[in-house]
Q: What sequence folds into this?
């Protein structure tokens, strides 16, 4: 029988739960050359860690993440911690010879991202792999979109419109850590624009070469400090919009906001090309809209494709018979299946972003901030 | 620590997988007074049973389901077998003192259902519980609809339109067992109308009192016998439509079909009442449409409610932070959480159908068939 | 220059306005072999008639509709009066040698309809034409659906689901004439089901051969008498549902209601066939949904077709450049263009229902009422 | 009886037809203090002018537009000519004492617009009115949105996303005049962005104060010269995107394109505010989406409002009974009703843009072009 991939997880919050679920589910649904084994979970706060480990099936637990680096049994480490510690942990883990799967965005700063990319490059020489959890790539609808584009079904790309609209940042929301730069790095930009930049780059297969303009705005600067009646200052963006060009000439708009009240999780992208168009919205994550221009004026129009048919849509066949829809967490499980395949030297269902790839997304995030700050267009070649 | 509910499962096909998944997931997401323990899986076909048990975490496996009935450790048995064996197994299990959770529809015939109901009544005196897996009751959107109706937000019910539209039964589909009466009992009717009858009864809280007319049709009578080039005869319905009245005077149409090509899994229901309306479609299972007539002509209209907010929408808080959508299989997990609560003498989040309840649904199925056969209206009081 | 078709209109209410608008607009948008001339408007109530005639451009007006029959200059008479006078007026006009365009439904009773059909047959021998204003046939989206079906794009028809849902008949609506049988004949059935029966027959090209069951319901029996605080009795249906079969074996459900609060004018039809499916909803009247099964599971799904492209969609080219949407009243203008073409012995863009055709729709209305009353299925061959 | 407003029209192309239709229809549907009389139509090309005048009911016609300026009977002149002649004609007409209703955009250049605004200011002293045909303000759904915002139902505005997506400019479209700068001035920018800038300013009631960045792109530079097989150069934009801020701090993205194949006429705007949100798409022009944040997380969501109820939605009552949808051309008729009211010194249903107002839109168009050209942000105060 195949030797399992001994795996560790650092983190026990929202992402810790989502990733733990993927580790528990993946071998039930996917036939993997080497399934993962849940070796150790590490987290700073020990109070609830034993219960967390038991609930999710981690064999061991520790409050010292460096134990994980030091443990020779462990092959793969999943870094599901806040952005500002990604670099320190990932680099140490790579240097200790682990494969590393890191939460997105790659890092809190471009400098951190650059260092992680360099570490990944060094580790690659010893066969170590890196992965970044851009989970939305693994929705079956996105997988189908990716394949249609590779099959040249939309032709030359003219236009990308990507938005990530959320609602939870209104004036009633208190001053939690996510509204403080020292803890969160940025607001909607790093959290949400990171996802749609990754999706746009992944789907088009093209790099962004210029930012034409950007605006970052903090609408609600004064928020109630939790547990008090006093007000404190929010110093992260509530929304960031920017315009960009791709290498092939396509233009794009990106918009991330936490104050779009009717939208819960509207991670959406539309791509218009010479021969066809595609549209996705995570709130309807099982659907892909596809317009095939060859359907003609008389009979053409957005097709509403349910991406639940086994065999055709990436990952769909692993789950249920045709026509049974998937949810949010399945993206992580789908990705973990591909991570396990790559570690076992098999082909993933779809390309997985590594640190090099995620570094390119980080450059775009940085260029947009520069553009907003300097009130000018910014060429990506200026941001390294 | 709470004593787990030692549980067994009979069946290893599609439903066996879906239920096994629920047994594996439920205690990870729900804090239960008594979580289930995966004691034994039973199935006729032993060839793949050991692998199935290992994959899904069942401690033991057997090809004789009566072993399960005989095992004094086991408290709860999940019957996920074909309809025609539900009665024999469920009755034996109840008589052996087990709680029984049976797949829907309750049985292949009304006589079987009647016997099961009687057995459940006897077992109830000894504290044994019965449950039927009408899983769609557990979509958070259906839960919210149920509560809005209980809060009298739609008032007197005028109208119900329920459809369950699938696409897989076209002329290209071969003569699998589902198209043969001796194996399947019926076609779309027992499989699909059972679900929407249950939803309509559950949501309105009213019983159906009359069938006004019905039509059953087999569009494709000749199908290719699998593995051959010969044709054989399909003798089950491809579609059944019927009209009904509820006790409070509401009228209703029901429609189940396997030859509605653009629909994958369109289990949908719309309820129009004096003060408001509700609409649900399983293809968008995280959404509920609600029209509150008090919004007025000027500002009123269908509201598109994302049922993903913790605390408000039944079951949503168990899963992920707000705004992360759920999928098909979560319905089973949500239901199993309620089954465990009931066995532990706690209140379920929402009412669970027992054999008595599912027997009422079976009577409606039967009355519709009678109406189609006799070309007359049929009062439910005539069908017992 | 072409000799105009001297035309008269009987009626000055809602339909009088809608038809007058069509008479005023048709020659501005369509190049007709013989455009209509607005010769005379007749209506019982003379108080506002002169103003009506001036506003809409009718050259003459009279309170005696028989003047119109007697006037030798008039070729075409449009009967836009209440249902119970259709027969008397239309028959007299046909006997006077006029072409007659009558509002739908053809008549208030089957006996009236039968007499009108006979009169039309006699008049046809002298070259007189009859037309019935089933205006929804003339939405460009319906025209495209008609053509796709004729081109065998959906193949054998399996299923029709037609609903006409309105909201205005709630308990707050007073006892206007529409709720009194002696004035209105019937409620939702004659008003709304007539439209969807016509659409279903028109699109499929098949006749209905059996009613499998029906239910008629008056939910609100007591309504306030307008201008008083007293209550009176409503004796027409608020909703009628029925099931039917077409000659080719397709099954169908029809539903008309005035108490579906979130729906304004949801005249909708879905047709599922062996090779494709079509869906239309008048609330989105410029759209046709089309599913071409040959798009396959991987890439297929409802196509959202904007029916606004000149040349492809019937009537669209008469109006504006591509992509400019039409509204409710355009259906009447489109139909009048075809009426004028037929009178000028040219081919209409699409078939127009004549009295024979509308009589078939009337038989279906009658059969559904019989089925509801007798609580049995009814074969259409029994209703003549 | 009221003295009619003697009116003239310059232009007989697409806009000439649309405006002529409005002149013919307005007094049929609206009770106006002073209805328009169709005095004269002027157009350069005399070949088809007589037929045009007869078809649409213009009493006189001329190939010299200055005849219209000179005719003392004429009070109102509608300028429906290409952008580059708007200034010359409008200024001369104003100086001749006419009220002027000019097609949008106000002019082909900012200098022209500035001169027109100055002429309007001078003429205003003598009581002359100016109007600009931003017809989309007159969709009932936009009217309702306007009123909801004035009633403070969405509160402080955070975000505007406006797109105008069309499909007709793909590589197969030949080099018609619209692709040549000397004839058209600009491409999608002046044609489409003008509309959505006007809508955004109108709805929010706020001015744009800064352009944060812009990109203008000509995707298809070489097109077939009509009637030849040779290629010529297109020198106008196929798409222009820009980001902006409003005075109150709201951020906005604008996007106009002619190469978005699945979109016919997607003039859409979404406005997110502190208390609510609004969304409109001209392809569903009878609908307004409204999210009232006070509906709460549990029950809130986009409401789909059919804007067809008389009395509530501006203009709806003039047309048909409730629930009958309007089309493209009704916007012109609705606007003309307001133009007639203003000339008769009555209050319009909704504010009409005059030359001053349209000049502000022109400044935004210009600022966006400057931003794209200079690769910097541009403050509106720099553009006069």
A:
């Amino acid at each position: 029988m195949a030797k399992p991939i001994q795996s560790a997880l650092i983190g026990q919050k929202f992402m810790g739960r989502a990733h733990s679920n993927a580790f528990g589910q993946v071998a039930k649904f996917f036939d993997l050359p080497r399934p993962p084994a849940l070796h150790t979970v590490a987290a700073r706060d020990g109070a609830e860690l034993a219960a967390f480990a038991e609930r999710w099936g981690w064999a061991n637990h520790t409050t010292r993440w460096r134990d994980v680096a030091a443990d020779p049994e462990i092959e793969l480490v999943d870094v599901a911690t806040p952005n500002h510690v990604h670099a320190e942990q990932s680099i140490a883990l790579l240097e200790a010879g682990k494969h590393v799967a890191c939460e997105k965005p790659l890092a809190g700063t471009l400098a951190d991202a650059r260092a992680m990319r360099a570490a990944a490059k060094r580790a690659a020489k010893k066969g170590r792999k890196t992965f970044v959890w851009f989970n939305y790539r693994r929705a079956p609808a996105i997988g189908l979109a990716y394949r249609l584009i590779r099959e040249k079904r939309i032709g030359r790309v003219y236009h990308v419109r990507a938005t990530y609209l959320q609602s939870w940042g209104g004036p009633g929301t208190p001053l939690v850590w996510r509204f403080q730069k020292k803890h969160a790095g940025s607001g909607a930009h790093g959290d949400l624009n990171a996802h749609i930049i990754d999706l746009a780059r992944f789907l088009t297969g093209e790099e962004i070469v210029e930012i034409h303009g950007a605006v970052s705005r903090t609408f609600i600067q004064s928020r109630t400090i939790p547990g008090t009646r006093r007000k404190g200052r929010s110093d992260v963006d509530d929304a960031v919009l920017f315009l960009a060009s791709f290498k092939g000439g396509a233009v794009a708009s990106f918009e991330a906001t936490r104050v779009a009240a009717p939208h819960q999780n509207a991670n959406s992208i539309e791509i218009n090309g010479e021969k066809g168009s595609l549209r996705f919205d995570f709130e309807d994550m099982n659907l892909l809209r596809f317009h095939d221009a060859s359907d003609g004026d008389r009979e053409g129009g957005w097709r509403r494709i349910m991406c639940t048919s086994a065999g055709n849509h990436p990952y769909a066949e692993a789950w249920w018979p045709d026509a049974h829809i998937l949810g949010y967490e399945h993206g992580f499980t789908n990705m973990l299946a591909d991570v396990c395949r790559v570690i076992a030297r098999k082909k993933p269902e779809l390309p997985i972003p590594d640190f090099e790839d995620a570094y390119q997304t980080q450059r775009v995030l940085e260029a947009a901030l520069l553009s907003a700050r300097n009130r000018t267009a910014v060429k990506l070649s200026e941001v390294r």
In short: The radius of gyration of chain D is 21 Å. Residues 5-132 of chain D form a domain with the Rossmann fold fold (CATH 3.40.50.720). The longest strand of chain D covers residues 208-217.
